[in-house]
Amino acid sequence: MKKIVLLFLSFLMISCGSNEPQPIKLNVDSCEFCKMTISNGKFGAELLTKKGRYYKFDDLSCMLLYAKENTNVQVQSFFVNDYAKDNTLIPAEQSFYLRGGALNSPMRGNFAAFASDKEQDNFQKQLDAKTLTWQQVFTLY
Amino acid sequence: MKKISFIVFLLFFSIGKATTIKVGANLPVKKIKQALALANDGDTILVHSGIYKEGTILINKKIYFIGKNFPVLDGQHKKEVVSINANDVVVKGFKVINSGHAALNDPCGIRVYDKNNVIIQGNILDNNFFGIYLQNSTNCIVKNNVIKAYGKAEQLIGNGIHCWKSNNLQIIGNKITGHRDGIYFEFVTQSVIWRNIANNNIRYGLHFMFSNDDAYITNVFKNNGAGVAVMFTKNVKMFNNYFEENWGDSAYGLLLKEISDSYIFNNRFARNTSGIYMEGTSRIKVEKNSFESNGWGMKIQASCMENEIVNNNFLKNTFDISTNGSLVLNTFNSNFWDKYEGYDLDKDGMGDVPYHPLSLFAVLTENTPSAMLLYRSFMITLLDKSEKVLPSITPDNFVDNKPLMKSLPL
Question: How many C-beta atoms surround the C-beta of residue A5 within 10 A?
């Protein structure tokens, strides 16, 4: 019985629209804010609205500027590219950030996001960049 | 004996004011690095044909580095191939291949580090991550190089000619294929891009970011992923260029974003999804251009103001103009529109009835792209006609008061 309920629930979850990111198609999708074609899978970002629509961005700074400018867009969740991987989106709120140093992002936001603080530490030395939390990143714009 | 001859040899080079050191498999100096160690400022290193796999060739003296019959400098997919770290260097006639790939420090075919008066001329660059990279450089010339890479959409690749924080550059007569952006300018001022051909690059043929006071003249940008982008820039002159066959949802012949005080003159936009897309642009003059067989001739977003669109030809476009708002702060004057159906009774060459280039359907599809399905249906044609007579949805000041009766000879 439990299993059936679980199955039913999972179906319900899927049909209601998930909270999963939609992969960015490199060199095909364009940035909602700056209109540039997204070509670097290390700096991209994605916004999911409450209505289930995805907006894609080539730079975290573009997403934040877009979110602040378009207050009528109700945000369900933010996603960012994991810098340590190739074109993999991870939830933005739980990520660890670096900014500046040797980072060179398409629109000069120069943010790198990581899934763990360990990776953040490793790259911090390599990139000579400043560590940030999501709260700090979000209040920058 | 051998030792003495070598010393004499060395002496010869240190006394002579400007000498030529020849490098080749059958010559005393077999390696380029050896020749570089021997050379003094002002010397010429003449490299004979052959394959040289010497890692990064660092030029830190003022020399003429000349290749004869295109000697191959092979980076073996590991490192940067040629690094120039001196003023007044000339690199000419080499075939530079296989630089390292996708590393943090952006390995290049040929890179100039913070230097002046460097000339990179007549080289072939093949399969490098970045082709030619100028950083913090002044008065440099990049001329007649053929730059080719084999980038694919899902893979990271650098730009053909990448210029960063530089000024007074001349980029002339290069051919660039298969890179991310053909030519990329970031914080580059007072520079000219002339007679280049950029085709089949993955993203843009030419890409400007934060680069003021530049000109690009007589270039061909064909079949690139998304055309040409000029962004966050002012005072750019764009003359006599061809923007062709840039197809795709986010592809434009020319994408203008946050740009002001520029002049677009005598260009040809043919067979693009959108000829020009403008957003946040102001004080731009678009004069004597030809827009032919595009999906949209021009897409002018409501955020644009004080732009002048004068004396252009709009031929065979699905939509000549489209916009996303009702605010019109741009002027149209004396253009030729092949969709114009007015008359000219006083025979002054200008139509007597103003022309509204914005069709109702262009406005509808801007808001609801899927409405495109109904294009050329009877109802839409009827609506379009009635809208022409009594504008209700389209802004009525979106108008060319003096439409030309004949197309301009451009």
Answer: 9
CB B143 within 8 A of CB B192: no
Distance from CA of B279 to the nearest CA of A (A): 9
What is the per-residue pLDDT across B288-334, written as a single tens digit (0 to 9) for each? 999 999 999 999 998 999 999 999 999 999 999 998 887 788 999 99
Q: Which of A105, A77, A71 is nearest to A89 (CA)?
A: A77
* Contact (CB, 8 A) for B268 and B289: yes
Query: In whole angstroms, what separates CA B80 from the centre of its chain?
Result: 24
Name which of A61-65, B348-352, B397-401 the model is least confident about. B397-401
- State whether A40 and B156 contact (CB < 8 Å): yes
| Cβ(A65)–Cβ(A73) below 8 Å | no
Q: Taking Cα atoms as reference points, which of B237, B229, B282, B283 lies closest to residue B256?
A: B229
Domains and CATH numbers, chain B: 59-337 (2.160.20.10)
| Domain residue limits, chain A | 20-139
> What tens digit of pLDDT does each residue of A80-120 get?
999 998 899 999 999 999 999 888 898 889 999 999 999 99
Q: Suggest the residue from B155, B231, B250, B300 to mutate for an interface test with chain A (most A CBs closer than 10 A).
A: B250
Please list, in sequence order, all residues whose beta carbon lies within 8 angstroms of the beta carbon of residue B243, skipping any fewer than 6 positions away.
Answer: B221, B227, B228, B253, B254, B267, B268, B269, B270, B272, B275
Distance between first and last Cα of chain B? 73
pLDDT digits (tens, 9 = 90+) for B6-51: 555 555 555 557 899 999 989 999 999 999 999 999 999 999 999 9
Portion 357-396 of B in contact with A at CB < 8 A:
none
**Model ipTM value:** 0.77
Chain A touched by B299 (CB under 8 Å): no
Q: What's CA B355's distance to the chain center, in Å?
A: 34
